[in-house]
Design a protein that fits this description.
Elements lengths: L5 E15 H4 L8 E13 L4 E4 L16 H4 L2 E3 L6 H7 L7 E5 L5 H4 L9 E5 H8 L20 E4 L3 E4 L2 E5 L8 E6 L5 E6 L20 H18 L2 E4 L5 H4 L9
Parallel strand pairs: 3-5, 5-6, 6-7, 11-12
Antiparallel strand pairs: 1-2, 1-4, 2-3, 8-9, 9-10, 10-11
The structure holds zinc ion (ZN).
Zinc ion binds next to loops.
Length: about 260
């Protein structure tokens, strides 16, 4: 018997970003532009406490600068109606109010942008991330938008790895940001999915471990990549790489349900 209360996992396409290749692969591909997806995941739970892993861009991106300032909007290469997180939830038969728990892998603008749509939910972040996001180092500060998270009252603060529900675990994977976390989900079939978020940017980061170019701490980033790779092998898990340019070649987007 599989010990999980997960019913299904759906991978949500939440728009696209323009990046430089050297952001994906440390010091390799400078000057080469790449277009990458922005993704999140919806975890449907048997107890009705459904979980969202990351909220992508703010859906009001095109109307106001409130949640995404102009300097960051320039990086968005695609964000249409079909990329709105509410559209995906509706495809699955849910509304934003049906999300009980929002896990932010980290608090960068393209992962926490839709947080304000889920004001009734409980948020889960890592202590290190919350503290850093409150006062980031200036050289990486531009990717944090305090308005996306400074109003959150029901925040559960984790200090490292934790199982949050049967079949759903969070693992501290720092490096890209100080308190970055990844999610491990066990499906009813017994298969395991690792949602790596920004701990990994593309398969080339895996072997040999090569950090993404925008890591806050490249040493920690390499350790996190190795940990995800080891767990992937050990658990025979498939890893979802949030911004992998080739992501949709191997994963089916929502409304597909992985079970
Ligand atoms: Zn990030």
């Amino acid at each position: 018997m599989t010990n999980t209360s997960v019913l299904s996992v759906s991978i949500l396409p939440l728009g696209r970003l323009k990046l430089e290749q050297s952001i994906l692969t440390y010091r390799q591909g400078m000057g080469t532009s790449v277009d990458v997806p922005v993704t999140g995941a919806f975890i449907e739970m048997a107890d009705g406490e459904h979980i969202l892993f990351d909220t992508g861009f703010s859906p009001t991106l095109h109307e106001s600068d409130e949640y995404v300032p102009e300097r960051l909007k320039k990086l968005v290469s695609q964000f249409g109606r079909e990329d709105d997180i509410r559209h995906h939830l509706a495809q699955l038969g849910y509304r934003p109010e049906d999300v009980s728990i929002v896990v932010n892998s980290h608090l960068h603008w393209d992962h926490a942008g839709g947080n304000h749509l889920f004001k009734g939910a409980r948020f889960i972040s890592q202590d290190r991330e919350i503290r850093f996001a409150g006062h980031p180092d200036p050289f990486v500060g531009r990717v944090y938008v305090p308005k996306q998270y400074d109003w959150i009252e029901t925040m559960e603060v984790l200090n490292g790895d934790q199982v949050i529900k049967p079949g759903v675990a969070l693992m501290l994977t720092p490096g890209h940001s100080p308190g970055h976390q990844s999610m491990i989900v066990r499906l009813p079939s017994g298969k395991t999915i690792i949602l790596a978020a920004d701990a990994v940017f593309c398969p080339a980061n895996f072997d040999p471990a090569l950090p993404p170019g925008n890591a806050h701490n490249p040493d920690e980033a390499v350790m996190s990549i190795q940990r995800i790779r080891m767990l992937g092998e050990f658990l025979q898990a498939e890893t979802v790489i949030c911004h992998d340019p080739e992501l949709w070649a191997s994963w089916q987007p929502c409304p597909y349900r992985y079970q």
